[in-house]
Amino acid sequence: MERGQLRVYLGAAPGVGKTYAMLAEGQRRAERGTDVVVGYVETYGRPRTEALLEGLEIVPRKTMHYRGATFTELDTDAVIARHPQVALIDELAHTNVPGSAEDKRWQDVERVLEAGITVVSTVNVQHLESVNDVVRQITGVPQRETIPDEVVRWAEQVELVDITPEALRRRMAHGNIYPPEKVDAALTHYFRAGNLTALRELALLWLADKVDDQLERYRADHGIAGTWEARERVVVALTGGPEGDTLVRRASRIAERTRGADLLAVHVTSSDGPADADAPANLARQRALVESLGGTYHQVMGDDIPTALLDFARGVNATQLVLGASRRGLVGQLFSRGVGVTTVARSGTIDVHLVTHEEIGRGRRAATREGLTRRRRLAGFLLAATILPLLTPTLAALRGRLSMPSDLLAFLIAVIGVALVGGLYPALAAAMAGFLLLNYYFTPPVHTFAVADADHLGALVAFVLAAVAVSTVVDIAARRTHDAARATADAEALSTLAGSVLRGERALDTLLERLRQTYGLTSVTLLEHRPGTSLTPDRQRDPGRWQIAAGVGDEPCATPDEGDADIPVGDGLSLVLRGHPLPAAARRVLEAYAAQAAVALRQQRLEEQAEKARPIAEADRARTAVLHAISHDLRTPLAAAKDAVNRLAEPDGARTGADRARLTATATGSLARLDHLLGNLLDVSRLQAGTLGTAPQPLAVEDIVPRALESLGPSDHHVDIRIPDGIPELLADPAFVERILVNLVTNARHHSPTGERVLLTAGSHADRVEIRVIDHGLGGYPPHHERTLRPFQRLDAEESHAGAELGLTLARGLAEEMGGTLVPGETPGGGVTMVLSLPTAAPSASHERESPA
Length: 853
Hints:
By secondary structure, the chain is of the alpha/beta class. Helices cover 49% and strands 17% of the residues. Strand 9, helix 10 (244-256) and strand 10 (262-269) form a beta-alpha-beta unit. The longest helix has 49 residues, at 454-502. Pfam families: DUF4118 (PF13493), HATPase_c (PF02518), HisKA (PF00512), KdpD (PF02702), Usp (PF00582).
């Protein structure tokens, strides 16, 4: 059944008009032909609100008695039984009277939603758990009725019922909210203008966060990577230099210009590590400054700093990016545009601020776009410094044998070798050195830097251009290889995640372990903020505000602040990674894992709740089955016995001796059948409770079978017994074995055609003795007969409602108590073969016997 939708009217304080808006919505839907009922509405005697109830069907409330008082509550079962399209249920955070099926009304609403009914409800912001302590600080009034934010946040629609504090106070003064005797106290305490303004701001900010979550989900679902300036987010880039303090304060002032704007600081760590020795200390100080200003700090990895910054900014939907002006001197700026200029050129819709500071011209952190490591670049310089001095005297010794083009090709090969090892910069250095060496040693006039022939000059210039071109291609190829490897890793991670979703995997620990292994992390922890706590930036480091929902690896994080990266997930969840900083481009992959982890956590908790509810459901099912058994299986023999006794009580002249004997036999047989059914029912209950003890002892099959058949009375004349010689003794409780055989033979006789005999045989296999009870009655063995072995089931229960076949249930339970099994099989030609398998004791001699009993 499709789940119903939840719509919530959110208010900042009582009296803003939530219930009025809810009833107005109900009237609008009813006018459009929607089936609307009122499940629970509290009007508090307000005439305009009560007027909106006219024309709407009201489901009667249920009456509850508690401590001598009478209360009325929402009748959830009645609403579900009525099954309208829409139910209006007021006061979502209400606490039910003790003794109710659910503790909170929002739990009742969950049941209604699961039944496929849409619910329209109301709640005040002071009842939300995340702001409950803030409301207490503002108003001085503790709120004992709270509701998890997740319940409201996951509603399909949340609408703010807004009113200015002045208008609300006027409404209070006119007596439209509280009775006249309570107005003065309310206006001077809870309903002060300052309190109402603060509550209104809390409601607006909370709803803005929900809208922001909805926007992020929409952008993720539709693959929208561009920036939507729906809310200002200011990202400040920190390099670890001393100018970071100035940048943070400047970014904070930019964020303060827009109320509700977010401030985020990000530091890009390259594979080369920090260039400044003081960078770690500077970053620690700047991180504390960011958090003191209400912002958050993030760290990502990337060798291409502009790309990493923009990837992060777009990932968090930033609208503004604050960078420091370059610290390099004029000479350095001639060779590279720098991070700031490159970022501005690629920023697209993100506004970039280049902020001046006192560190300009004092040196800068080197920004590199190379895909090669520092070790390879050093190896390239070392190769150039080695091969060129060796190549020059070698070619000089062969000056008479080699021409100028040969010398140029030899140096070009050397430069290409340097480029392959060290990339662009070592190759450029080798090309310039090769140009000078060729000019000095091999271009006439030799041993001077003059060039006599224009062709030789052109050849030298061509050499330099070829060397630069080859070096650039090698460098680009190295970077593309690095990017491709990273993209491949991300694609594989997403593919693995998608595969786990398609396969229906919900194991949270498995998901987190896969993420940890993919990125080589020390630990991955899913943190959840504790209910009733707020998550302001200054409390992010408090372990008391967080609890570990799940985690893998060593050294799990207790707060988001302890990890190298944290990914917020919805409301109050955070995926925290520890081990090393991650590339900015990996953030979207991490967000996908974080979203799936949240789903897995919710699924895990739902399964835990279902597991807790399963014994209750099983007990209810068993109780219903017992009542069903009593109402059917016991009614027939009881009615027959009652009728026989009543007829025997009539005057003697109305009955002959034969009639009295027949009635006496009927009453006796019915009562015996009733005693048998009650005995089975009691033993099945004792089996399920684990109070039926066993006393196993060695038993001979040829001895126990006749004793069991004797208790059947005349019916044993319809049983053929075929027990071969050499059957080992059983290790079992004799009373239990007799009871099993009686029930099996009774069941076989019940389903056998008139005149058809039941066959009872025995055999042994390994360390087991098998006794078979074979009938040729009902065909169609599977799947019916396996079902009859379950508690309170019978073969024809679904069709005729004849009650519960407890005999087979008891037989299987007794067999399992003794370490045996009872398995139904199909008899060739039609019918059922019940196979009782029990463990053997010491071998015992026996003889074959075949006789009609």
